[in-house]
Design brief:
alpha+beta, 2 domains
Length: about 160
């Protein structure tokens, strides 16, 4: 897993691997002789240790946790086992949008409030968009139309007719 950055296996094995690999990756953040020996006692592979404490350590330096991602990819044809791909989060350029392909995030507000509890005269309207089979609800503010002079005149005429 460490040398290839991504492997395909059954879902159960991927979940079990994540439980064992994430503490080792956390130990690699602090490059000491003791941490190298502890990780080597589990992996028993010098090349994997070099990769973990070198390339992987640089990519995950600022990440507080959650180094691995499991993506379900369907069922195996022969026995129907559920297959999954397990990979390092920071090594996939498609899902990792840090840098050139990064989209600006809108600030989200509830019910049209902006700032510290101040409410506006615009009601919040929730719209749902679907991106890559994931529904995302976005709250947008639409201004309320102020009554025109013509509307006030029709209201006065209605009152006179009554």
């Amino acid at each position: 897993m460490i040398t290839y950055k991504r492997i395909t296996t059954t879902l159960a094995k991927a979940k079990a691997l994540r439980v064992h690999a994430e503490p080792l990756i956390t130990k690699s953040k602090d490059d000491t002789t003791h941490n190298r020996r502890v990780v080597f006692s589990y992996l028993q592979n010098k090349e994997a240790i070099k990769e973990l404490f070198g390339v992987v350590r640089e990519k995950i330096a600022d990440r507080p946790g959650g180094y691995l991602r499991i993506i379900k990819i369907g069922h195996r044809k022969s026995d129907g086992a559920e297959m999954a791909m397990i990979e390092f989060v920071d090594f996939n350029e498609v899902y990792n949008l840090d840098g050139a392909g990064k989209t600006a995030k809108k600030s989200r507000r509830r019910r049209g409030t902006s700032g510290k509890g101040k409410s506006t005269d615009t009601p919040a309207v929730a719209t749902e968009t679907v991106v890559d089979d994931v529904a995302e609800t976005v709250i947008e503010d639409y201004p309320i139309d102020e009554p025109d002079a013509a509307d006030e005149a029709t209201e006065e005429s209605k009152e006179e007719n009554q």
